[in-house]
Amino acid sequence: MEKQEYLNLYHQMVVIRLLEEKVAELYQQGKIGGFLHLYIGQEAVSTGLISTRRPEDRVITAYRDHGVAINCGLPAGGIIAEMLGKATGVSGGKGGSMHLADVEKNFWGGHAIVGAHLPLAAGLALGDQYQGNAAVTICMFGDGATNIGFFHEALNLSKVWNLPVLWVCENNQYGMGTAVERASAVSEIRRKADGYGMKNAVADGMNLMDVREVAGKMMEEIRAGGGPQFLEIMTYRFRGHSMGDPERYRKPDEIRKWEENDPIGIYRKYLVDHQIASEDELNAQDQSAEKEIAEAVEFAENSPEPAAEELFKHIYVEE
Amino acid sequence: MARITMREAISQALWEEMERDERVFILGEEVGVWGGTYAVTKGFYDHFGPKRVKDTPIAEAAIIGAAIGAALTGLRPVAEMMTINFAFVAMDHIVNEAAKLHYMFNGQMRVPMVIRAPGGGGRQLGATHSQTPDAIFAHFPGLKVVAPGTPADAKGLLKAAIRSEDPVLFIEHATLYQTRGEVPEGEYIVPIGKSTVQRPGKDVTIVTYSKMLELSLKAADELAKEGIEAEIVDLRSLRPLDMGPVIESFKKTNRAVVVEEGWPSYGVGAEVATRIYEQAFDYADAPVKRVAQKEVPLPYNRTLEQMALPHVEDIVAAVKEVL
Ligand SMILES: Cc1ncc(C[n+]2csc(CCOP(=O)(O)OP(=O)(O)O)c2C)c(N)n1
Ligand SMILES: [Mg+2]
């Protein structure tokens, strides 16, 4: 990796962190409505993972999608505008926090029904296989999603049809208030892929470099026609499931322990220790990220609401 | 009688039925340790324990399917869908199993279960999480569908549902949980399949249920200021549908407006209007009007979402059109 690329990845993680802190504030001010699921603590997962993709590779995820959107190159302004329900939002203000997408950037959306996007991912990969495109579909989902039928149907199908999909489980230890071992027959989630004869691996989601290395190798094998693979990434959400989570299911101690493994801190230390970047250079990244978010918020807040006629647009394709 | 919220009324009915009958148990996502996504089962886990308050994996088909199986053995499961939108994941088990087994096996099997499912729009949850698909579920013979609009009816209908020998879908409206009303303490049953007049009047009949009852009552207040007396019939159950009070009212007023939150096409309003024509055509002085959601998936943007939902003014306007 070139130095600039290392710095870009750091920058992306800081942008995600700042964006999430900012939208939490906007939510508290009543400017964002509905559900808001923050990605704080999980930044290294999608930043490391998506750093291994080529532009032709597709990405699809669940409703915890803000970070993924940043990594896919969606502008922070358009993301925040979407959460504010503005016309300039990436989904025109009709989707909200859970439904960010930018098809031109090959980001096929946040999806709010748990597990429902996994069969879609199989279909995206089928589209590429059918048309002879050498592209991989990256499909991200939570630990909780591995207990729903969609997951099993999609994994099985992808293997039977040898589809180019990288299945990525973000194991943040909980689905809402339910710990993995209370909901899943096997707590080592990647073992589920064994049931479908699918190659699988685990990565440390607090460590961007580990995610990048493990995912990168898998992406290459899938791209070469090796069929689907399964990656479990161990991580933790530092905040509640969504805004307003009463958090009765985990102890402050547990959260504190994980917070000591801050993925941004770990990556920052890595860059300094390996003399890839200096503290000054990283501070400069922090500042530029802050500026970027401040500008994004300003853009979003000053953007217009969608016009009334938008309500009836896009129900069907206009021909 | 105590004045309590809809949430408390539902919670009370569940609690009392679980105390009364050992066979009643709850299963669903986050119903236990979390205390229910809408806090309806708060305190249940500590009191009744994990055997009777079962947290499940995110697996709606398995939740409903397992509830059906348990019901076949004589238990009385109350399965919670975190929202009614997720019931689509379990659609096969609801319509092809729960609603069919008793009939298909010639009465040998019984499915005495309840599915509790909050729904409704207006909270900026986006297209997949804001639906009011009540009419879809009311389409299937074999499944009973109730949707209370007051705390008292919520308590009485839920108790009736739990004691029913048939599967009952109990639809709650997520924006009604804080609504307060008088609720009888202890044993109180509202029979399934009985409509009721919630406000008497002589000029026009408003037929409605669930959340739209609240809006219709407000509309009636508005209309009263202009000297128009609307009679409000609350369906309470969508299947079986009790047209008695509707027809009786229509024969008196000769005009009707049907108000529902869901989409009008193939909906509750369509059904009720048709039955009015079938049963009381000669009494009609004007075509029956429907007030319903605009035919769009609900958008996230607050203003657009509100544009799509029915409001008090829409009801008032519809009444004036039929007068
Ligand atoms: C089919 C369905 N059931 C339930 C829900 C409600 N729900 C939203 S997120 C969630 C937990 C998902 O947990 P996990 O897959 O681990 O993802 P995480 O939130 O931890 O990122 C639940 C139960 C839903 N959206 N869809
Ligand atoms: Mg999780």
Defining traits:
heterodimer; A: 319 residues; alpha/beta; Rossmann fold; six-stranded parallel sheet; two-stranded antiparallel sheet; 12% strand; B: 323 residues; seven-stranded mixed sheet; five-stranded mixed sheet; 12 helices; 14 strands; 37% helix; globular; binds thiamine diphosphate; binds magnesium ion
Describe this structure in words.
- With 319 residues, chain A is α/β, with parallel strands linked by helices.
- Chain A has one domain (3-304): Thiamin diphosphate (ThDP)-binding fold, Pyr/PP domains (Rossmann fold, 3-Layer(aba) Sandwich).
- Chain A has helices at residues 3-28, 43-50, 66-71, 76-83, 117-130, 149-160, 180-183, 191-194, 208-226, 252-259, 263-273, 279-302; strands at residues 58-62, 107-111, 137-142, 165-171, 174-175, 178-179, 199-204, 229-234.
- In chain A, the strands form two sheets. In chain A, strands 2-1-3-4-8-7 form a six-stranded parallel β-sheet, sandwiched between helices. In chain A, strands 5-6 form a two-stranded antiparallel sheet.
- In chain A, helix 1 crosses helix 12 (279-302) and helix 2 packs parallel to helix 9.
- Chain B has helices at 6-20, 44-48, 60-72, 91-98, 101-104, 134-137, 151-163, 211-225, 244-253, 268-280, 302-308, 312-322, and strands at 2-5, 24-28, 53-55, 76-80, 114-119, 144-146, 168-173, 180-183, 196-199, 204-208, 230-234, 237-239, 256-259, 289-291.
- Helix content of chain B is 37%, strand content 19%.
- In chain B, the strands form three sheets. Chain B has a seven-stranded mixed β-sheet, with helices on both faces. Chain B has a five-stranded mixed β-sheet with strand order 9-11-10-13-14, with helices on both faces.
- Chains A and B meet through loops of A and helix 3 and helix 11 of B.
- The structure holds thiamine diphosphate and magnesium ion (MG).
- Thiamine diphosphate (TPP) sits between chains A (64, 112-114, 141-145, 172, 174-176, 241) and B (29, 58, 60, 82, 86, 89).
